Amino acid sequence: MFPVIRIAVNVSSRQFWRTDFADTVFKALDKAGVAAHFLELELTERLAMQDTDKLIAIMNKLHHRGVRLAIDDFGTGYSSLMYLKKLPFHVLKIDRSFVMGLPLNNDDAAICRTILAMSVALGFETIAEGVEGQEQEDYLRSNGCLVAQGFLFSKPVSAEKMVKLFTICPASY
């Protein structure tokens, strides 16, 4: 038996704006027998800039059921910091375009430090995307980012390969 781990799913704008989106998510969770807090939906900043009242209603419905919400590719869209305050996000994902130049590019370093500080102050978990080198991971970790994804850890793998990875290195949750 494998441990239950959080699964992150990218949600397109077209999917999110379907009138039955939240109910479809809940039905899928119920059918799979998975608790809502093990699902994290990744939404882009661009999505957060549309029909704010409807967006908040859908996000609150998901949030109150326990689904985790992440803002993907943070810093690359048309974000307003007001959305970080108004919307029930749990996670900010730092876009790989800011991670690629770490630790040598001063602008990327400043942006990452700022996002990390803001994220901590607002109570968000932060995930760095596109970590490909040990120097990047070391820099991020030393600045408070404890979760990262990228080729440094693994290239994309098939479902079959994932099962093998869990068999070899089971997570301890």
From TrEMBL:
It holds the Pfam family EAL. GO terms for molecular function: cyclic-guanylate-specific phosphodiesterase activity. SMART domains: EAL. CDD domains: EAL (cd01948). Residues 1-170 form the EAL domain. It comes from the Bacteria. This is EAL domain-containing protein. It comes from Nitrincola iocasae.
